[in-house]
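Hello Y.,

Per our agreement to keep a running log of every chain we model this quarter, I'm adding this entry. I've kept the format consistent with earlier entries: sequence first, then predicted structure.
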Amino acid sequence: FLLIEASVWEEVLCRVGFMGLPLLAIALLSGERKDLGKYVYGGFEYNRFVPVFLIISSLIFGYAHYDGWGLWKILPTFIFGLAAGWLFHKYGLYASIMLHFFIDFLSAESILGLNTFFLSLATMPVLFFGLIFTSRIVLLAVERLSGKESEEPPEPGL
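Predicted structure for the entry above:
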């Protein structure tokens, strides 16, 4: 229950509260009147404010873990916040909650006192695909920042 609870309320607070709602306010101020629920549920189109609130929500998420974990936890949770925020923006709240739950599940050994060998085996594919995922995001970010969009659209899910 602890793993599920944290995954849901932390994602709702950080992604909806610090990304979706500010983007909703900007959309309302700019006259947008249709399909406003996308800012609450995620899966909205890119605009120039998305990176701003992505970084703000990730900083808040990272710093929120300082009190219980210490200074060393801020950077990893900030980086996780970037990934979860991107998933929220691109696919929706459910995607960021699922990622958060999965990461928390991998740390269940320390919370629940489980056998570390089996969870370590489960971590290996996650690290492999995480490296691929992170590389792909970095390449897309470099392309977008340099103004060179790729000719072909990226494959769904990558």
